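hey so u asked for the seq, here:
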Amino acid sequence: MELKGIHHVSALTANAADNYSFYTEVLGMRLVKKTVNQDDTSVYHLFYADEIGNPGTDLTFFEIPRAGTTYPGISSISATSLRVKDNNALQYWKQRFIEYKVDHDEIITVRGRKIVSFRDPEGQRLKLVSDETNNGVKGGTPWKKGPVPVENAIIGLGPSHLTVNDPDPTIKVLTEVLSFKEIDRYPSLVQGQQDVRVFSTGEGGTGAEVHLETRSDLPRERPGRGSVHHVAFRVDNEEELQYWKERLQSARLPNSGLVERYYFKSLYFREPNGILFELATDGPGFTTDEDPEHLGESLALPPYFEQDRERIEARLKPLDTKRG
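ran it, structure tokens below
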């Protein structure tokens, strides 16, 4: 049994309103769910994705208003990739980044793929990756009402980049427990460091890869606004999630057990370098409680929080996500 690829990536923001503006107005992603952190209902949990939040397209943010600055380092998810259709789209994005004064690098080629690295206003480390040579997991369907032309729009999540000091324990979990396969490696952009190693699962391609970077020159990351909280991998259904729970237990990896998130079911654990992984089911999805035409416009709460809606809404700073 194999994982199907990247399910979602969850990161931290200190300002939900500014975060919403950047990811919807500049990056053109759709807010498919405005809800709360189910472990702390006093803060928002925002989900940006394709037209209906298909698995593998969700970049999510927990709002932590007092989050400090991130100090990059090891034991971290050090970059998140977003897929676009082809190389021409990257030329569009380079001009858009200039227009919107987005901090970005030049377009480069890595393993035959064109990429451009950039940062959001809080320093979130992101990459746009061209899908021109992708033969693996298909991307999502861009939202047609967004500000970015469909042919250039973001279509999903690409490789997750992990940075560690000792790669062997992480590799053991990826390959022996999660059944990833090491398929390639490429030179580090930092002189004197080991090659970055590439691991793939399921159908492979940009939507199913983990890139593992070894750094001997960095301290442990101190996370804050602009850092990544966890990466989630796709599981078909709850029955398979139960299989993975038993597999983790057999490997003596402490885990959360199955957790109800309403839009999907989850299982959390930390690999030996301290990076938080999640396994999440593909369904039931974000249209479970909202009309597809109006996703993300109102505060959505799972049924088990509805009785507390008034109290929850009173603690949240209003966030206007309705579109005219």
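The longest helix spans residues 87-99. The two ends are 46 Å apart (CA to CA).
lmk if thats what u needed
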